[in-house]
Design a protein that fits this description.
By secondary structure, the chain is α+β, with helices and mostly antiparallel strands. It is about 45% helix and about 20% strand. Helix 3 packs antiparallel against helix 5.
Length: about 150
Amino acid sequence: MDEFEIILDTPYKLALKLVEDALKAEGFGVITSIDVQQTMKSKLNVNFRPYTILGACNPPIAHRALERDPRIGLMMPCNVSVETTADGKTLVRIADPAQMIGCSDNPDDVLIELASELRGKLLQVSKRLKDAPSSSAEESKPWERLNHLTDL
């Protein structure tokens, strides 16, 4: 598994929230959210595992990249997928902008530098997710949750 693939021992919906929070903490907004499970059901009448594709955008970097080369819009936004695994965990995958810029037919030094800056921010997102406490750790110590209850 690489640095842009993270396994979370967290239920899917909570993991989705953790991903959105980690992106926000690094200056990204989620501008698209594709519920693949719902789409497969409505378009193909196929049951599919919980799976969401998030389109994340860092506006200052996006603006600089688009000013440099409008064709970069074809590679935007930064995609992040969140899916349930067979063993009940959640797998997060983040597209590596350095690899994406390598697909460009004319990557110049400025675009390579912007991709590197973006990559650094997404590596921080990955680190935040890897450092997030797992839900199973909380569930294994139910007495610690009592400290947060106010109406005992």
